[in-house]
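Hey, quick one: can you model this chain's 3D structure?
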Amino acid sequence: MKFTPTSIPEIIVIEPTVFGDERGYFMETWTQSKFAEGGITAQFVQDNHSKSQQGVLRGLHYQISNAQGKLVRVLKGEVFDVAVDMRKSSPSYGQWVGETLSEENKKMMWVPPGFAHGFYVLSEEAEFVYKCTDYYAPEYERSVLWNDLDIGIEWPLIPGKAPQLSAKDQAGLRFKDAQPY
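Sure thing. Here's the predicted structure for all 181 residues.
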């Protein structure tokens, strides 16, 4: 496996070694010892799986208590995955990292606790899976507005098609009004 820190070093892109032949392929997606060597020592307590149609934007979500680290990847399709630093004491507070994850490139991304997370579906549909380091706690969940100009995420939106958002995501707070971690 290859572990590559991003412009925010705590966010790491993971490229698994893929063994393929005419029958298909095999890859490891989680090996505790290899991840520890790559700088990720998280213990996971929950696995999630979502399916979304093209143009769906989920996020930007985080929990102010019971903060979740997430190891994210795509089983089917393609998404643009984003993490925003919500850690008030961090030198990268308010900065974001984005990465295209797909069934083709098989990349994964480690989003540590203290970051808001979201993704936008580029393909006709996408199946997105992620391991979490803490349990979902709706009473602590917060949502930052996906298109807040203070953050300035460069979403690769499909031309002429507004992103599909949940009511919760439509009501996301501006970054300057959001509770920091």
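One thing worth noting: The CA atoms of residues 71 and 110 lie 5 Å apart.
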